[in-house]
Design goal:
Blueprint: H1 3-25, H2 27-31, H3 34-54, H4 57-80, H5 86-99, H6 102-105, H7 113-126, H8 144-157, H9 167-179, H10 184-204, H11 209-233, H12 243-259
Helix pairs in contact: 1-4, 3-4, 8-10, 9-10, 11-12
């Protein structure tokens, strides 16, 4: 085994030993099961996504470690009730990746990333034990933008998709939303259609809608905070300003952001 492989294996062994010790000796860790741990796993996955989006390699290394610990811990819970182990998890993953990459490990040809994704979804649909139907095993507890993208991807795999980027769909849904003004129930429906259409545009552009929306929210948050700081520097409390004054400070904050 090459020295770098030995180093990797030894590091994983040490993490595994630490996970087992925590399970035995830490009161909090002893109390956990998969239902109580998974919310932490989801949180760590979001923190990992934020680090990747920020391009912060040090933070990415840290968050990858947190996610890796979650995998070790959940695998240990499987082992405790005789339902699997970390080795089983790794081997199951390896076999699944081989099966879903026939263009690498078999005779299937796939020249583009789109062809790879279509093959992937078609292979998943034929695997034993999977829910039948176009939308079988689409988790309904995904965040809204990711759930919408997953549904759209499944529909596209079945052949139901736009060939173009559907900007016109967003424009059409916005017109319907304007027409629904004053009708709360209709507005609820049309806002959903606008968001769904926007996610479809993101999918066609290969943009993650969840990360894009979070990044937009962070930009807005930073600009509003910047505007409040500018107001404070002029001796004004943000909450005491009228809408026009707040908008003026917001515009200044945006200009400062663009010039920095």
């Amino acid at each position: 085994m090459p020295p770098e492989d030995e180093k990797d294996v030894e590091a994983l062994r040490r993490l595994d030993a630490l996970t087992r010790r925590l399970r035995r000796e830490c009161p909090w860790d002893r109390e956990q099961d998969e239902r109580s741990i998974v919310p932490h796993t989801v949180e760590e996955a979001y923190e990992l996504a934020a680090a990747a989006q920020a391009g912060d390699d040090a933070k990415l290394l840290d968050e990858l470690g947190d996610v890796l610990f979650q995998v070790h811990f959940l695998s240990l819970l499987l082992e405790e009730r005789g339902a699997g182990s970390l080795a089983d998890v790794a081997e199951h993953c390896r076999q699944k990746l081989i099966r879903r990459h026939p263009h690498v490990f078999g005779e299937v040809e796939a020249e583009t990333a789109g062809e790879v994704l279509r093959n992937w979804d078609q292979i998943k649909a034929t695997e034993p034990g999977r829910e039948p139907g176009i939308f079988g095993e689409v988790p309904e507890n995904l965040p809204g933008p990711l759930y919408a993208r997953k549904v759209q991807r499944r529909a596209a795999t079945s052949g139901f998709d736009f060939e173009h980027v559907p900007y016109d769909a967003v424009e059409g849904e916005l017109e319907e939303l304007r027409a629904a003004a004053g009708d709360r129930e209709a507005a609820f429906h049309e806002v959903g259609d606008v968001l769904f259409a926007a996610v479809n545009v993101a999918r066609k552009l290969k943009v993650d809608p969840e990360l894009a929306l979070r990044a937009a929210a962070e930009r807005f948050r930073g600009r509003v905070q910047g505007a409040a700081d500018l107001a404070a520097g002029d001796g004004s409390a943000w909450q005491d300003l009228g809408p026009e004054d707040q908008l003026a400070y917001y515009a200044r904050a945006r200009l400062n952001e663009e010039s920095s």
